[in-house]
Amino acid sequence: MSMQEHVPAGQLDEATEALEELAGVLADDQSMEDALRQLAESVSRVIPDAEDVSVTVVTPEGASTAAATDERVVAIDSDQYAAGNGPCLEAARTRRPVRATREDGRRRWPEFARAAERADVCAYLSAPLVIDDDVIGSLNLYSSRESAFDPFDEALLRLFTTAASTTITGFRRYDRSRALIRHLQAALESRAEIDQAKGVLMAAHGIDDSEAFARLVAESQRHNTKLRDVARNLLASVRRP
Fold first, then answer.
1. Single pTM value for the model
2. Where are any strands of DSSP class E within the chain?
3. Is residue 117 within 8 Å of 76, Cβ to Cβ?
4. Are 74 and 65 in contact (CB under 8 A)?
5. β-strand partners of 53
6. Is the distance from CB of 141 to CB of 122 less than 8 angstroms?
7. Which residues make Cβ contacts (< 8 Å) with residue 54, sequence separation at least 6?
8. DSSP 8-class letter at 147
9. Over the stretch 107-162, which tens digit does the pLDDT of each residue have?
10. What is the DSSP letter of 148?
11. What letter would DSSP give residue 37?
12. What residue stretches are annotated with the ANTAR domain (predicted)?
């Protein structure tokens, strides 16, 4: 058996190790940028032809590079986003992997190709990132070799796109959870301040809970101010020397 026949198995072992390392990054509560950077570096290590790797994220506001192994591919990606076409964006639009050489690029995406050639990039492979059937970007490989990337590289890349999609999904859910917690904390704080303000009015004017709340609401409407702020101002006024 030739050494070349051993390469795929070795690459799969490396891919497995790299994905385990990525899981460790997530377990360590790193930022999404750190996790995606780790993923990009892992792809570059596992796929020999991938000299540089970037992660494109597409939102309603446009496309951006969330992580990259080298600043030169950030510049290539930026030119692609400005032109509105290129392998990264095509992979996201078509939901299919896109492999192209320098010659392909000159014909299909001239602006992108010029930027790639300035950075000595001769071949590129992009695969879409999909979350819940929504395309959110692409994982992109760059090489200075025209013959770079084969079907096995594409299959490996799909493993990493799954990991990238899972990473982004996890962090988005985490961000939503943190936002919800912040809102709940603010609501609890507001409720406490409003209850305290009602207590002040009840003690000062000999009124019940409902009347105290009604006065706070009336003050809020009269000055077009949030009820929480009315309560906070009242409490601040009684705490002054």
1. 0.62
2. 52-59, 62-68, 98-101, 123-131, 134-143
3. no
4. yes
5. 141
6. no
7. 40, 65, 67, 68, 69, 73, 74, 77, 88, 139, 140, 142
8. T
9. 999 888 888 888 899 999 999 988 776 778 899 999 999 888 988 888 888 878 87
10. -
11. H
12. 174-235
